[in-house]
Design goal:
By secondary structure, this protein is an alpha+beta fold. Helices cover 60% and strands 8% of the residues.
Length: 508
């Protein structure tokens, strides 16, 4: 072969090689996705998630909400090893976190995404948790919380329809070979904390899916389940509520076992019928964002004080190369804040604001850093506190529907040891509406309602925490709820315990 032909052949091979993956962002109505993949793949992933949201709303008869940037779930589709590293645990394909700054999910990217592969099922499972927490002011038993997520995880997204209730084949081993938890055990609120081994957890998830599936497609039993939820959320212990609603739980166990042994299981097909798929806006991350994205993921995953210091030390020299990138400087401001480098946080925020005057993140962390300095310095001068709040107010004006500035504006009065203004209380309630999944914000809003003697609203906010299956029996929400039900006064309810919202929500 001549050198000319060899060169031509090499050129043809290189031309046929797929372009290297690059970091992309896909923003749609309910999601913001980040992944180092192709534009075709990230669009496919975005479409699958939007169809999931549509399918869940259609199935559960939950109305869609206005498109609000801060309510979107941020999803990082990354390598499995990165997921495990960020989680700090093994044998996990993805995980979900919620906080006032926004809900996030980390999931392993897979070529089978969009074809009911494990990557899709994990992410669908995590989003089902988000959907449930955002849609219902109710406490659910642990088996249903996980069972519903498993029920949603196998949703099949087709060109013309979505199908929910598809058998959870990935739980077959746990269902047929694992421990067969009987229905009375499933309703025992302490079971989840006693599972122990991975095998028992797999069996619990499978049984949760099975019981969810059975109740969903048996109308009479589903009506009994709704009665159970009413009793559970009014304070009846879980097993007693189940016995009052379902009758003989042993008989229900036999029914469920027979259901599993049957030859077929139903599923529900939902036709799109002209439903318009929310379009995804895809953009390539800037050079600075791409260089910082690994650190950004670890930052918003959550860091300890020691981790925060190390992360900031790594991020600062990288960000210095991108002084003109407002988003990079906003990320750096947050990392500096977490590391308690407050002057550096203000400086980075100022650089970001100089290039993007409407940066919510930059204004937010500028104000948060100044407030922390005033708190640590035990400053009493009200004028300095008011000046620090100006940055929080600027963040709110940039996006009135972002919950985090609303929360920080209210929190600033707690930090100052001053009664919150009516606008701060109103902002707290709005923050809770925007992030119903954040329990710290929910507790603070409940206390506000108690102060205002708005008992019905206070009880509505407290119930999901008080009767949550993972909550201890002597939890503060339950104690406060019990005091309200007993007709106690505001001061008597406050005496039940101190709600330390700053410690539970504001810390990195």
């Amino acid at each position: 072969m001549t050198w000319g032909k060899l060169a031509a052949l090499c050129g043809a091979i290189l031309a046929a090689t797929p372009a290297a993956a690059e970091w992309l962002e896909a923003s749609s109505r309910h999601f913001v996705l980040y992944s180092d993949t192709s534009e075709k793949m990230i669009r496919r992933q975005s479409e699958a998630l939007e169809r999931l949201d549509w399918g869940l709303r259609r199935f559960a008869k939950v109305q869609d909400e206005p498109e609000i940037a801060s309510r979107k779930v941020t999803v990082f589709l990354i390598d499995d090893s990165q997921v495990r590293s960020l989680c700090g645990c093994q044998n996990v394909g993805g995980f979900y976190q919620t906080r006032v700054s926004g809900s996030i999910a980390f999931s392993g990217k897979a070529s089978s995404f969009g074809d009911n592969g494990i990557g899709q099922m994990v992410l669908f499972h995590e989003y089902a948790h988000h959907f449930m927490f955002a849609s219902y002011d109710l406490a659910f038993p642990a088996w249903y919380t996980e069972g519903f997520a498993e029920f949603a995880s196998t949703m099949r997204i087709k060109d013309d329809s979505a199908q929910i209730g598809v058998p959870a084949q990935h739980r077959a081993r746990g269902l047929f070979q694992g421990q067969r938890f009987r229905v009375p055990e499933m309703f025992d609120s302490t079971l989840r904390s006693r599972l122990g081994s991975a095998e028992r957890q797999d069996a619990f998830y499978g049984r949760g899916w099975l019981l969810t599936h059975y109740l969903t497609f048996k109308p009479e039993r589903y009506r009994q389940f709704q009665q159970y939820l009413r009793l559970l959320n009014s304070g009846t212990p879980s097993v007693a509520a189940a016995e009052q609603s379902f009758g003989d739980l042993g008989a229900l166990s036999i029914e469920v076992d027979r259901y599993l042994a049957g030859s077929r299981m139903p599923a529900m097909t939902m036709m799109y019928d002209g439903n318009v798929l929310p379009a995804a806006r895809v953009r390539r991350l800037s050079a600075g964002e791409a260089d910082m994205i690994d650190l950004r993921m670890r930052s918003i995953r959550g860091v300890t004080k020691t981790e925060a210091a190390k992360l900031y030390a790594r991020a600062a020299p990288i960000a210095a190369k991108y002084a003109d990138d407002a988003l990079v400087q906003g990320w750096l401001a947050e990392m500096a804040f977490d590391a308690e480098q407050y002057d550096a946080a203000v400086a980075a925020a100022d650089q970001a604001i100089a290039r993007d005057a409407r940066s919510v993140q930059a204004h937010m962390y500028r104000g948060a850093a100044l407030l922390r300095q005033l708190k640590q310095g035990n400053v009493k001068d009200a004028a300095q506190w008011d000046r620090a709040r100006r940055s929080i107010i600027a963040a709110n004006r940039s996006d009135p529907d972002d919950a985090e500035p609303l929360w920080w504006f209210w929190l600033s009065f707690q930090m100052q040891a001053r009664e919150p203004t009516p606008s701060a209380i109103k902002g707290l309630y709005r923050a809770q509406e925007l992030t119903p999944q954040d329990w710290g914000v929910r507790m603070a809003a409940a206390v506000g309602r108690i102060e205002a003697k708005e008992w019905a609203e206070a009880k509505r906010l407290l119930r999901p925490i008080a009767y949550h299956p993972h909550a201890p029996e002597d939890n503060l929400a339950l104690a406060m709820l019990t005091a309200i039900e007993a007709g106690k006064t505001g001061s008597e309810i406050r005496a039940v315990g101190e709600v330390k919202t700053e410690a539970t929500t504001e810390q990195p």
